[in-house]
Amino acid sequence: MIEENVKKLLKEIPEVNPFGEKVTLVAAVKLQTADNVNCAICGGVSDIGDNHVQEFRENYAKINGNPRRHFIGHLQTNKIKYLLGKVDLYHSVDRYNLAEELSRRGATAGLKSNILIQINIGNEETKGGFSIEEAENAYKKISAMPALNVEGLMAMLPFCDDEARLRRLAKAMREKFDELNGKGASLKYLSMGMSGDWRLCIEEGSNMIRLGTAIFGERKYNK
Ligand SMILES: *Cc1c(COP(=O)(O)O)cnc(C)c1O
Hints:
It is built from 9 helices and 8 strands. The chain is of the alpha/beta class.
């Protein structure tokens, strides 16, 4: 089932967004067994994203096929040590002290980390991230940190049925992404879109989507 879901999605996800950019599918693997993740990889998934450090560590060696590793969940600074050097892209850099600590520890270990700056596009109290107004300042400060490469922006749209509002927010993210690139940044990734809203996000200019439910089915939170 998982393999078929992935194959269908890879066909369905447009090859490019309206900006002519390839769209990367990241499988959001929280609460999935290593077997399930490996099924997704058999189906063609090349990128996987973890939310929980504990799960990442437990499953790390059980994952086949050497996919690109993303960390997409909230990250506590005291857990960075478990991820450093193993994660290809951190999506959820949502505050300055996390960026500072990632850079500091990376510098000590002699490696640079690739990161996205998380924007709280819906201004939601329950979500982390910089406000869209703070994005440029955050980009300037974080890209000046020695052991970080800022590769783009990440956002989670609010859960709501107001499609016009969701499109407005997604569009605002793309505009900020383009604005920063217009001012000399070289951002590659706009990570935006989950199972409920990925089509809309690609239509508005996302080039990286993070799908869990659409690949694995409903998550079982009681295991
Ligand atoms: C769980 C999660 C996803 C995937 O959510 P689905 O709705 O199951 O596709 C994407 N991004 C983040 C940050 C997540 O935590």
